[in-house]
Design a protein that fits this description.
Layout (H helix, E strand, L loop, with lengths): L1 H6 L13 E3 L12 E10 L13 E6 L3 H19 L14 E7 L7 E8 L1 E13 L4 E7 L6 E4 L3 E12 L17 E6 L6 H7 L1 H4 L3 E6 L7 H13 L5 E4 L6 E4 L4 E5 L5 E5 L6 E7 L2 E6 L4 E5 L6 E3 L7 E8 L2 E7 L3 E9 L3 E9 L13 E5 L5 E5 L2 E6 L4 E6 L3 E6 L5 E7 L3 E8 L7 E3 L9 H4 L4 E3 L3 E7 L8 E7 L10 E5 L6 E2 L9 E4 L5 E4 L7 E4 L3 H34 L1
Parallel strand pairs: 1-4, 2-9, 9-11
Antiparallel strand pairs: 2-5, 3-4, 3-6, 4-5, 6-7, 6-8, 9-10, 12-13, 13-14, 14-15, 16-17, 17-18, 18-19, 20-21, 21-22, 22-23, 24-25, 25-26, 26-27, 28-29, 29-30, 30-31, 32-33, 33-34, 34-35, 36-37, 37-38, 38-39
Helix pairs in contact: 5-7
């Protein structure tokens, strides 16, 4: 039913789709076309997904500007000649013409939910017209688009040069989880702007296209043109950075803190006293894993990067111990050994980390399975440290235990899981895979994933998208807490429910507690401890309750109002520029007539 409901989501078609869009695709091992340069841009959406069928953008659409007048005049001349041959009147202002439009496609190597778009384009001046996302499963297709235009700025492409545009951020200002978001035509629903670069995309391009890169002149990298809107963009990008979306949590192996890992290098640590410690890691990428070794804090990220900082230092050091085609997904500490899990486009890799800076030895490779197809839903891959200090990998319906003596993996059957986390005490919480819509019942395991206990909750008959995808929490190793609906039919609220872990079957009712805070339906198991529960809200806020929903506390806010205010200032400045251009145009026309 959930899939059926998603199909009727209203989507906005890409404007200007009647124009012929030219591909910028570069084939590995091929030569760069004559008079072309290479363009690279990273796009980060400051949200968990764009829409249920659209996890991320699939295209960046660029318009060429420097030949616009030439194309316009050619269209006018052609239309004028045609009108003359037919003996018709000619009206220049009614002539239609089209820009040269180019499509950049994303490369998925080495990223988690950021995207790097790379392609070759003829030398010239360009602007990003829009971000575009396309979905098809053979039975239906849908599109969404977000205008960009001057809000990101203009850039040049030169022959045999790299135009490194750094990071562009898509920032929703309304709740993107509401189906009406993409129907809303207001320009205040979201903004797209560029961010100050933290790291060049040069290494990404040269890693993916080593032969082509040898032909590029990398002595001078091209970036965005400077203009009068730079201060507005800087302020908007800084606000997006400060309000980075964070939906990934971890208990830090080798430490006492819990980590909230966000986009744009934002790391927030929660200590045992429920106090937050903020770190601004120097990257525009998502942070994905954390580890502590003695007085050293280590975080993993995209594009093969890790960042380390000693407690006595204020500065982070970036290292690249693995390929830029991999992202560091997880760190685990077992005794004196450190393990890391990384992901590439087709595989997951397990490393035995002998030296965090230089010596990562690959000990396992696991095929990355497509999470869903039209006929089958697959489970994901998740690392587990067992009670016997064995590294276990659950990959769809199989689990693998690592033997440190023989450096081999022992395979056995496993529950297929749509989502899973391991809590500090070793308990596993997850979601079963459903062949209907991908997400099944909540499930918990107290024996490292050897057996699982399914949790039946009272939910809406035809699907309950709000609590469906939320993981349960296990407090103090005994009490399971989840989201559900009341047995009292007059109570329509989403509430917190709990039961003892020894009473998970259907004959034992859930205890009913307080109402869940509106818009905050994703439990964060790895942050929760004692009686304190943490939740992620639709627009990225973090809230907590220590009395099962009777009272709520805002832990981390998202300053939407300030972002809206600054974006309105940018729009006002753009309108002033347009007025000035119109004024200058009229003055030129008056002068030519005189």
């Amino acid at each position: 039913m959930q899939r059926v409901m998603l199909i009727i989501l209203a989507l906005v078609m890409l404007s200007g789709c009647a124009s012929t869009i030219k591909s910028t695709r570069m084939v590995v091992g091929s030569e760069l076309p004559q008079e072309h340069g290479v363009v690279a841009v990273k796009v980060v959406s400051n949200t968990n997904q764009l829409a249920p069928l659209h996890p991320r953008w699939t295209e960046v659409i660029a318009f060429r500007l420097d030949n616009a007048e030439q194309l316009k005049q050619a269209a006018i001349d052609k239309a004028k000649a045609h009108a003359k041959s037919k003996g018709r009147n000619f009206y220049e202002d009614k002539v239609e013409w089209k820009h040269d439009i180019y499509s950049l496609r994303a490369l998925s190597e080495g990223v988690i939910d950021s995207q790097v778009f790379v392609g070759s384009m003829p030398a010239g001046e360009y602007i990003i017209g829009s971000l575009h996302s396309f979905y098809t499963d053979g039975n239906m297709s849908s599109w969404i688009t977000m205008p960009v235009n001057i809000s990101a700025g203009k850039f040049n492409v030169k022959q045999n040069n790299l135009s490194d545009l750094g990071t562009v951020v898509f920032q929703p200002l309304l709740s993107i989880k509401e189906p009406s978001f993409w129907n809303n035509r207001s320009e205040q629903k979201a903004y797209v702007t560029r961010m100050p670069s933290k790291k060049s995309l040069q290494s990404f391009v040269t890693t993916h296209y080593p032969k082509l890169a040898k032909k590029l002149d990398l002595s001078s990298i091209i970036t965005w043109q400077q203009d009068d809107l730079g201060d507005f963009r800087s302020q908007l990008s800084q606000l997006s950075r400060e309000n980075a979306y964070a939906d990934q949590t971890a208990h830090i192996s080798g430490g006492l803190s819990k980590a909230l890992l966000a986009k744009f290098g934002q790391l927030k640590l929660l200590d045992e006293n429920q106090q937050w410690e903020h770190h601004d890691v120097p990257t525009n990428s998502r942070l994905s894993s954390a580890l502590r070794i003695d007085d050293m804090l280590i975080v993993g990220s995209e594009l093969g990067a890790i960042f380390i900082k000693n407690d006595s230092s204020k500065h982070w050091q970036e290292l690249s111990p693995i390929s830029a085609k991999e992202a560091v997904m997880w760190f685990g500490k077992i005794g004196n050994s450190i393990y890391a899990l990384t992901s590439s486009r087709q595989n997951y890799f397990v490393y035995d980390v002998k030296d965090i800076r230089t010596n990562w030895q690959k000990v396992g490779t696991f095929k990355r399975k497509e999470r869903s197809g039209f006929f089958v839903q697959n489970g994901g891959l998740y690392p587990v440290v067992t009670g016997n200090n064995v590294l276990r990998i659950i990959n769809d319906n199989e689990k693998f235990d690592f033997d440190t003596i023989t450096n081999t993996w022992k395979k056995s059957k496993s529950e297929s899981l749509a989502s899973m986390l391991q809590l500090k005490d070793g308990t596993l919480v997850g979601l079963e895979v459903s062949q209907w819509d991908g997400i099944g019942k909540q499930t918990v395991s107290f024996d490292d994933g050897d057996t699982w206990l399914s949790l039946s909750r009272k939910l809406k008959t035809w699907g309950d998208r709000k609590p469906d995808a939320s993981l349960p929490v296990v407090l103090d190793g005994n009490t399971i807490v989840s989201l559900g609906r009341s047995r009292d039919k007059s109570n329509k609220d989403l509430i917190l429910i709990s039961k003892d872990k020894t009473k998970t079957n259907k004959k034992y009712y859930w205890k009913e507690h307080g109402k869940v805070k509106e818009g905050c339906y994703s439990m964060l198991p790895n942050l929760s401890q004692g009686s304190m529960l943490f939740f992620l809200c639709d627009q990225g806020e973090i809230v907590s309750t220590n009395d099962l929903g009777k009272t709520w506390k805002l832990e981390l806010d998202i300053n939407i109002a300030e972002m809206q205010k600054e974006y309105e200032a940018l729009l006002a400045a753009l309108k002033e520029q347009e007025k000035e251009k119109e004024k200058e145009k009229k003055q030129e026309q008056s002068g030519s007539e005189a």
